[in-house]
Specification:
The protein has 36 helices and seven strands. The chain has 881 residues and is mainly α. The chain has four domains: 401 residues, Hydantoin permease (Orthogonal Bundle), CATH 1.10.4160; 75 residues, no CATH class; 79 residues, Orthogonal Bundle (Helix Hairpins); 147 residues, Heat Shock Protein 90 (2-Layer Sandwich), CATH 3.30.565. The strands form two sheets. Strands 2-4-5-7-6 form a five-stranded mixed sheet. A two-stranded antiparallel sheet has the order 1-3. A hairpin with a 6-residue loop joins β4 and β5.
Amino acid sequence: MPLNALVISCLAYAALMFAVAYAADRAAARGHVRWLDHPLVYTLSLSVYCSAWTFYGAVGYASRSGLEFLTIYLGPTIIFCGAWWGLRRLVRVARMHHVTSVADLISARFGKSNRLAAMVTLIAVIAATPYIALQLQSVRLSFEVFAMDPRGVVTADALGGTALWVAIGLAAFTILFGTRNLAADERHHGVVTAIAFEAVVKLAAFIALGIFVVWGLADGPVDMLARINRASTDPRIAEGWLLKPDRWTALILISAAAILTLPRMFQVLVVEAADEDRLHVAGWAFPAYLFAMSLFVLPIAVMGRELLPADANPDLYVLTLPAASGQNLLALLVFLGGFSAATSMVVVCAIAVATMVSNHWLVPAWLALRRIPVGEDTDDLRGFVLNARRFAILAIVAAGWVYHQASGGAAALAAMGLVAFSGMAQVLPAMLGGLLWRGANRKGAYAGIGLGFTLWIGLVFLPSVGIGGDLPVPQGMDAWTAAVALSLALNTLVFVGVSIFGFPDPVERFQGLSFVSAIEPLRHSRTASADDRAEPLLAMARRIWGPEAALRYFQTEARRQGKSGYLPDLTPDFLTGLERRLAGSIGSATAHAMIDRVAGGVALTVADLLQVADEAQRAKEETQRLEAAQAELTRTARQLHQANEKLTTLSVQKDAFLGQISHELRTPMTSVRAFSEILKDPDVSDPDRLRFAAIIHDEAGRLTRLLDDLLDLSVLESGQAQLNITVVNLHDLITRALEAASATRAERGFLIDRDLPSEHLGLITDPDRLLQVLINVISNARKYCDAVHPVLIIRVQRPQAGGAIIDIIDNGSGIDSGRQSLIFEKFARLNDPARAGGAGLGLAICKEIMVTLGGDIGYLPGQGGAAFRIVLPQKPAGGTG
């Protein structure tokens, strides 16, 4: 097949992957996730285990070592078939704590230690870099098969920088679909769907090649078995067909550990799992997939040794066999299968490792360097985290490419699959110990992982790249097996020993109870429940999740507590839930540090832990009915308490309002009466008569406006308001409102910040009523904003359901959290009555107008100043013209 045709096919296939990922992300954004969360899609995404090292290297492995290649399939099969209950437990605990990576899991279990997570991240980076280089090399070698001239010589000019362009394309794909948002659950529907599609392609390619080899090149299964039997007696590879218990045990153990600890496998197995029920299907379907991928490995290896030249690369038998047989379409399909295996591994590995680097290296370092008080920290942390992950993706893929270039594609690179497996396996003792043993502690994890990592570097990693020598072992023992066994054994012994003789701190015991018992953690902190600390937490969440997601979460939690508005009480349940959701975006350790930084609190004690254990035991014994009843009673009591407090406040304000109304009515009437008496005097001069008449006119107007407000509010509350419904441009109404409100404190130079293109929305509403609301809110901002350099920000959004959302925000000190729930009541004022100069009806009228228009108006806390949100439907539900 011409190389140009291959390149065009490769580009078309890459474009198809972009389209699949884009369509899946669009479907997820619209809420159509049912088919995206199908167990079959989840199972196929697990095929990222079958990287290019498996797709190409398994055949080469079988050609050199006979049946030993089966160990890389047996390990995962044993885990899924024999310990799927353990996988369910792992997924349950990880979802419970919103874990984002294997480093985050270790950190969350052992006291939310970021230093421990940073150590695991270092191991992952070192192990992943040469493994990514291996994928780039496999793509380059597969191109070489099609770039040979008739003499069998590779035309280097035709290849150019294949590995570089592949690395650039994969980095772009990963950044585009792996860092689109900072979700609390860190799921990437587009990437997972594309990987599931690629899983089908590489399975179809491998099975098609196997069928061609068995029935096209051989004379069927019987003939193929005879050829395999003859190959097993070949003295050149006979040793590989012998079962070596020590090496086989080590290989099966390492491949089983890889399923749990490799960053890419943890990403698809745990982080991308919607729930643990996905493992019901994956428990049998994934082993079946591995069986299908391994079924034709030996036939392809044996036929390649028989038909291809002796100097042919066994790792490329899957390509050279169909190419040498003139099966160009089959060769193209196999090439795309290998390309899928390599690209899917690089993409998922880059996402997983970049998340670890961002959460446990870059973000903690950035927060530590910026010693700014929380209240003054207004930077967009969400943007920084996303950019940090994008930078990390570029750095990781670039490191893989540099390693590939530096190694020159050496044959030693093919062994890096097992090297990466054994490196990440050093995390396994701490992971299993943390999930199964409450006595495991942070010091033991530090010591075990640190020692295992050091031994792995010296005994496995450095010898694999030609630095140093293998571990001296007795004759007949495999050096690699001995090195892996020694590092894991000492790792485990030190982890257990230090944990036994150490004593975990209260936070570790608290987390240990949650992880080992797989129960929801409760934060037994003595943090106060005052609203004045809920608003800084909301501001912090806005910086990480974005304004809408943060407001939605806080409003939901407030309603769950039976409160209105956006500020829930800082109860232990709320703080724990908030911390776990933040952990899904920035990691457990960073989330824990930021919550403590903003909310404060008292450290846990042993008494707290005993209380948690007692309550957890009692919670297990309670029935579902009692739990539901208790929750309902708590919510009702909270609502009644809040309503009682509001009624008490309103009663006081009502008395003040009646006094104010009496004063407001009496003052103009007294003036009118007094000056009208004066006008009866015939001796009053004409200038004085005109001046007194003007005063009477002004006071009468003031009295009329007050009565109009009262009547307007009464009509709106009775539901008898008549609406003049028409089509309006929101931009025009906002402009008119700004002009009308400009007379309020005109001496102050307000800077108006608008996004004009977003304001051009067509709505069906009553323009006069909506204009009345806009003028009132903008006038209040001009009246009460106490900033030295006042700024008024107006932002308009278009929800998916239609209508519009208008946010009006100033940069003043805002409204006290204790008064935010009362400002829309009829008897409330934004500030001191003497300063307000009104009866406190403006916002109450605005509220009733918005209800009549089918929308709403509310106060947005945590915006850095006074902020109001006006929500409009596309068309009022009722009303007449």
